[in-house]
Write a structure and sequence with these properties.
Number of strands: 9
Order of helices and strands: HEEEEEEEEE
Strand content: over 45%
Radius of gyration: 16 Å
Length: 155
Amino acid sequence: MKKVMLIFAMIVAMSGFSSNLKAQDYRAGIGLSLGAPMGLDYKQFFSPRSAINATFGYTFQYNALTIGAVYQYHMPIVENLNAYVGAGVNFGAMYMGDEYFYRGSEFLFGLTPNVGVEYKFAGVPIVLGLDYRPSVNFSVKSQWNQAALKVRYTF
């Protein structure tokens, strides 16, 4: 975990040296989140560096169905490669039980810090991203192992 945070801190620091680079050159993208959660992903930019990213998905490890939205601030690293940081909220339901006894579902609500990188292919409407987005939940146990590969079609 410390290594991941150190890498992202270095990315953020390096982005300060690249003030002449622009952030992503697309307005919106829709695609898949492959990891935790597994599901649909949508990103909408409101300025060259500010975006909202929403995900509807299922986390197999925690048996949780969630909807989440995070604000992301993008920082260019090199041409077509951005780092981002942000935070948001998530809610949904977590299945509670084991293989022998079903106890029902519990409402899930929490805060979601977010860090990641994404690459926009030049001349092709595809974005690949790597996202770390734990869920710090208030109602049920938190979900710390939330990382996913994002594949989006941009428009």
